[in-house]
Structures
1.
Amino acid sequence: MVVGTNATGSEKLPLLILGTAKRPRWLRDKPDGVDYKGVGKGWMTAAVFSDWLQDLEARMAAEDRLILLLVDNAPSHKVPEKATPHVRVVKLPPNTTAAIQPMDQGVIATLKARVMDAQTEAIMQAYMHGEEDPHQIKLAQALQWCKQAWDDIPAETIKHCW
């Protein structure tokens, strides 16, 4: 999952979910504000990052905005040779992500905790209603939890992580 936001938390980018299926059946049921990309092992690749960055560049160009994008030094985060005049990409130094990457400083942990809360609640409800396998969850439902959790993270929480 790829998450991105500005430093104040007032503008969150749509979530990008990475999976292994090129065109999964549930894709038509995915919530608005969630993008999906099917890639081999479901990991970020240089090609996926480049496509995502070009989409972000097009969006910022259409809005005539200039932004700074901080990324960790993962091999997949290759800065393209083709200029992105509206998105300046800065890679953080090696082995510093956990210490200085704002998204690692609580935003992602908050997102994970909220998704886990939603999952736990759904399992409890299914159990209380006597469902045969309360742990069986549809992927579209999990994506909805991710979207809702992302939308519900307060701007103040994001701001604190900076």
2.
Amino acid sequence: KQINSQTLGLDTLSVQDAYTPKGTAVTRDVTTYKDGGTTLAAPDAAAIDAALGTTGASGTAAVKFKDGNYFVEVTGTTKNGLYEATVDAAGAVTMTANKATVTGAGTVTKNQVVDAVTPTPVDTVAAATALTNAGVTGATGNTSLVKMSFEDKNGKVTDAGYALKVGNDYYAADYDEKTGEIKAKTVNYTDATGAAKTGA
């Protein structure tokens, strides 16, 4: 739904003119990592058997890392896969029997330390596609997520949630700060010919 004074219930001309909409760009802190000075000691075959309950001491392990977390990828056993792990200050890696569900973890041989924390615009590709499908022109490649507020003539600011900005227009949206998922608030309806339509 497009956000303006009327959709907020401010439907008299004098009230509309008294409120100024503002959109502040929403970013997520993206952390990048680099090698530290400690070499990691991956679990040996005996440690793999102890963690997974396998036998034969035939397993090998590679230490993986993604988004601040360590994992161990096991091969050569009947329980191959990627498992959650921890790393102590000395670089010793302790694996668990908990299968990891992450994808894209990279192999590391050193402990990982923070390199930089960079505010980065959230991904709006899927939300822009939803707006395009709802008839919004120019959404592809031109959509950003903003935190909406409305300021009255006395300087009082009212929080109005999140919106997708396309050009000078704003469209209501839900945003999950934990997952980064954005959902454009579109409306399904039937037009005069009986055809199903989607609007924003």
